[in-house]
Each structure stands twice: as structure tokens, then as C-alpha cells.
Sequence to fold (292 residues):
Amino acid sequence: MLLFLSVIWGGSYLFVGIAVKDLSPLVIVWARVVLAAAALLPFHFLLVGPLPRDREAWTAIIGLSILNNVIPFTLIVTGQTMIASGLASVINATSPLFGVAFIAAAGLDPLIPRKVLGILIGIAGVAVLKGTSLFGENSQSIGILLCLGAAASYGVGSLWARMKLKNTPPLSMATGQLLVSSLIMTIFAFSFDNPAQLIDASKESWAALLGLSLLSTSFAYILFFRVVARSGPANVLLVTMLIPVSAIAMGIAVLGETLDRMEILGTVIIMLALVVIDGRALKLLRRQPKAL
Fold:
């Protein structure tokens, strides 16, 4: 399930890479959350029952919808108009690094030396991706910064979830945040964009939107929480490490994308940072074989 989830989420970058050829970022994100919410709501009523009614739960859900859906979805899709889908997935893989830093800053978890090292390695990996021109004015640099902003938003979202979400069922959390995100993105899409462009979108773009919303969002949420229930939240970090692999492979195979040497090196360094943050591989290396 972990491998399958990584492929599904990796596919979201491919779907966006196809859809941005016809549609604007706001319209893509709006369609994604609306279709995903419509698909997930019946499952919620079937498996969990009515949505939460208490104010505390909805306060947490509203914050999570902004931090986990509205902001990162919009930034990633906008970034993918400037950079390759595989590169966007690599940058987004830094979200656990931001999460560790923000959670430590809030005093919820200590920032131990291993985590500090992982964060520093991750920063080095991002710097290598674009070299000294990272903060330049070219479109690729802007795309990288937008995707970094999305990763940071996911990091704040993990902190928000730790602080606010206590007794809310996971499926309620996912369904609720998609419903709130649908309302917010409907306001943004109709105020600042033109959703009517969906009428003239190609069959490929519509197929990509359906894949993005139904497969990479609704179904992915259901699968995600099954992985958490069966393997624990710590193992979900492995998905973050695997997503860029599938996203890069799909980008090369379907979209004809390529990564240059520095981008490949940066990807390897960021994956190393995630391994250090996770810590389990390092523990295995420290184990001594038992004497015969």
C-alpha cells in the first residue's frame, strides 16, 4: 500500500503537468478539491457517519484546509508552470524538514542533533538544485521558490494538526478540509479567474483533472489513512521519499522531461536528508551482528 500510495501521489505531478497546458492554476486547484470532496463525502457517510458538528473540530479543519490544500495546491500548480513535474516533487519532498523545524520551534518535540543535521542537508540539497541563482529572477527560480513555499505550508500544517486535531476521525479530517477548500477555491476561482475555460479544455486535460481529484486526492486520502492505521504515522515518511521517484519516472516517460546533473545531485541530497530525519536506517547501521 505504501508503494501504491507513492505512485498515486507521484502521479499528481504528472496530472498537473498535463492540465496546465490548457488550464490556469486556480481553476485546476478548484476543480481538484471540488471533485475530490464530492467523491469523498459519500464514503464518509458510509464509513463514519455525519460530519463533526463541534466548533473545535471545524476550527482545526478550516486551518488545515488552508495549510494543506489551498496554499500548497495553488503554489505547486503555479510552480509547475515554470519547472518540471519531477523537480516540483523533489522540492515538495522537503515538507517533513519544515515540519520537524516548526514542531520543534513550538516546543512539541526536541530538535535533536540528527534532525538538525537532516535539516541542514536538506537546505544544501535545495541549494544544489539551482545553484547560486536560486533567488534570481528567472522563471525556474520562481517556480522552485513557489514549491518551497508549498512545502513550508505543509510543514505548518503538520504543526497545526499536532496542536489542534485531537479526537477528529482521520476521514472526517480529510473530507472536512476538502469541503472547506472547495468553498475557498470557488470564491477565488470565480473572483480572480474564469472557470468557464473548463468547457474548452481538451480530453487529456479533463482526464488529468479526474485523475488528480479522484485518484491522487480522494482515493489517496483513504489509502493514506489505512497505511497510518496499519503501519503507524512514522512509516508515512517513507512515502515522501518514494514520491519523487515515481513523479520523475512519469515525467520522463510521459512528458519528456529531463533533469540535469545538478538537479539529480540535489535530489539525492534531499533524499539523504529525509533518511537522516527518519533515523531508522541510521539505527540499522549502528547495530552490531550478534556473536555466533
